[in-house]
Amino acid sequence: MHKMSDVLEHSLVQNFVLSLSAQTEQLDELIDAMLNAPQPDLNQAITHFIANQENYDFAHALDIQKENLNAIQNGLALQKEHLADAAKIVALCLVLETNTLPQLNVAESLDGFPM
User: Fold this and answer.
1) Using CA atoms, how far apart are residues 96 and 99, in angstroms rounded to an integer?
2) Which of 8, 68, 70, 92 has its CA 20 to 30 A from that of 56?
């Protein structure tokens, strides 16, 4: 099984962690890294992450529709219509794998939401 941080380039993972602490937007860099990563490895890392979730609350929290989540699980993460949702999942994977969740400023309105 691949971890997302193993699939994407090491420099992207470092920049991602730094961007979280700097509160900057790195979506374009993340999507470029996804497009340049080996597709089978990326799909496997995403599928592994989704399969290891007890429920799909993360998808609801990321505003990912069930049909898009199913498409991403079926290897369609890099299709244009699913790329933004797949990037949300990849970002969540990186946050969890790099243990940077405590660095994030979470809006007070999300206090009761499971993280």
Assistant:
1) 5
2) 8
